Amino acid sequence: MATTATGTSPFTYDHxxxxxxDRSFIRKYIFSTDHKIIGIQFLIMSLTFLLLGGTLAxxxxxxxxxxxxxxxxxxxxxxxxxxxxVVLPEFYNSAVTMHGTFMVFFAIMPLLVGVFGNYLIPLKxxxxxxxxxxxxxxxxxxxxPAGFLMLAGFFVEGGSAAAGWTSYAPLSARSDLTGVHLGQxxxxxxxxxxxxxxxxxxxxxxxxVINLRAPGMNWFRLPLSIWSLFVTACLVLLAIPVLSGAxxxxxFDQTIGTKFFEPTAGGQPLLWQHLFWFFxxxxxxxxxxxxxxxASDIIANGARKPIFGYTSMVLAIIAIGFLGWGVWGxxxxxxxMNPTLGTxxxxxxxxxxxxxxxxxxxxxxxxxxxxxxxxxxxxxxLAFVSMxxxxxxxGVFMAASPFDIYIHDTYFIxxxxxxxxxxxxxxxxxxxxxxxxxxxxGRMMNPTIGKVHFWLTLVFYNCxxxxxxxxxxxxxxxxxxxxxxxxxxxxxxxxxxxxxxxAFCLFATQFLFxxxxxxxxxxxxxxxxxxxxxNGLEWTLPSPPPHGNFATVPTVYRGPxxxxxxxxxxxxxxxNVPTPGGGYGSPxxxxxxx
Amino acid sequence: xxxxxxxxEDVMLPPPSRAPGxxxxxxxxxxxxFLGSEVMFFTALIGTxxxxxxxxxxxxxxxxxxxxxxxIPVTAVNTFLLICSSVTMVKAFAAAQDGIQRQLxxxxxxxxxxxxxxxxVQVYEYTHxxxxxxxxxxxxxxxxxxxxxxxxxxxxxxxxxCMIYVTMxxxxxxxTQADHRGVEVIGLYWHFVDLVWIILFxxxxxx
Lengths: 594, 207
Known about the structure:
The complex is a heterodimer.
Chain A: H1 25-30, H2 35-65, E1 82-83, E2 86-87, H3 89-125, H4 133-152, H5 175-178, H6 182-211, H7 224-255, H8 269-286, H9 289-303, H10 310-323, H11 339-367, H12 376-399, H13 401-407, H14 411-441, H15 447-473, H16 487-490, H17 493-523
Antiparallel strand pairs in A: 1-2
Helix pairs in contact in A: 2-3, 2-4, 2-17, 3-4, 3-6, 3-7, 3-14, 4-6, 6-7, 7-8, 7-9, 7-10, 9-11, 9-12, 9-14, 10-11, 11-12, 12-14, 12-15, 14-15, 15-17
Chain B: H1 3-9, H2 26-55, H3 72-98, H4 101-131, H5 139-171, H6 181-206
Helix pairs in contact in B: 2-5, 2-6, 3-4, 3-6, 4-5, 5-6
């Protein structure tokens, strides 16, 4: 390999030096400024919240599948949560709210942006660390108290927030409506604090990608994972402050008696929805773009072919980033918004299908006639593409405002959002975690357990979420405590029971992943530097890479997708290796723009 | 920014061991990007104000004339002070570029003092208004007034704190003609906060 961990760095400008690491334990692993450690810290934090969010989903599924039956272990919970073991409606509302909040803000978003933004950006662009390592550390240590604050809601009087993860006002603003006062306040404060963390992270990522790329790492040689994280960081930077602003207004309504969302005093409940979804829809792309980017890297690697249509992939990422700002109204077709405005939002939403379709066909084009290696990350990445297509197509249904009238606030929506968030984002996260695990921890995950986990997850996931489309089309509303109270939903109860049992199996399957993750950390087979024969710069480093990453600044000669190149005897050429036959660059049409 | 500044910046750039970036050093680029996020934050607050005011003009009846609860002349003077602090900031940066330590310290100190005065006058204004019964729970006008001016005041306070840190560094001679990134970066933030105030003063007090 061209670089090793020893030797002194010629690199004087930045914070990273590949010298002997003499930092104390606390500086190295707890208050670390090393982007790799911060990435791993985010990984542990967000996987914990993923587990918590999943547990709350199990509570909901128990109540929906077996309404009125005592929850196993339910008697252990306080009387304000369960009565004789049966989940109380208040606890159900709280579980719905906190499941959504944990999954969106504390699991999927940090998993994608916090973990892989941190871990991959400096390694893949050939930088020693982030542009602002201390702000990066502050970003993590701001996210942690935000998480604890959100959790604290469960332990205060009135329980946690219960107005849904979207916290629609005035339900969320007035404690006489939900019976929750402190919990709602914690929700707002926690998200404001988490917003600070996200903003610190995002301007760091953007600056790093712009200013710290290694020589030769032109914009059009960046891996798609970095492109997507870059555009995502731009979305986070501009969308999160709007949420913070909205949460501050809501917090003031709750605490000091302002009247922003209070209709009796002239406030506008619809204003909350506009502000929330103005943030919320870019947020949707924050949750899928990094998944798309990382899946692109993994699919090209698994197919042993250059990514199909690199430039169009980049442009599609940018197009999604732009269009994502003009579609928030499609969450509000039934909110009393002007119907003419609804048509505008319908058209802009349908437009997003175009770049998404470009990406999907490019993935298919990449796999086409490739010599596919079905390693575990590749399996997850392929599942990501197929599940994203299902979720994307149901999204086109819902974008059509006439159809939305019928399925608005039903389980069709729940099915759709889980197809993109679980089927899309989470499969890509499984792909990414299993792919970069060897680099992070220096050990391989067990591939057999990985494959069992993958197949069981795929099957149970579809058994859980696909029937929800059917429920929704039958008019089964979301966020309902006991569906059997309505005669027209009683016939659907067997479907609900089936979904619940599948969901329990899906949840149980995730313990395979957890066990594999923890066991491999200590007992896994030692990982080579480049287990997947990938071209990215991070694979030229030892596993795990040393503090400061690159002993000498790498020079980049080509894009990251040169698999099966006729210019090499191997079927891959790392980005920092000069072309064997001499010459600069490659015949692959990637612009040396900049 | 003067042309001289653009020439000066070269010395603060990283050595050419990197791919071409934005052409400015990371701290400055990062501040510009961060300010983009601040723009969105204030846009959310200002947008809320505009929407509520258009929807309920009656909540602002009598404002700005003849019956506004706000003391416009005092705030106009305060606005003038804040604009002056942007001038002193520019002078501080110019002194840093010329490497004149004494001037740098004095102008930074002046900026800190004027900034702190601005916050002080705002606190005085708040107590005065609250004594006269104009409180945040006073309908839409009170809600929006305190939220917008309050968050601006919070930003000025943060700016003053950072400015104190920069001034202390300046007194220890940490900013040279070759490298005075801290002065320039805090200056960007300071001018932004000033600009936001000019917009807020106009839409909250004057119209």
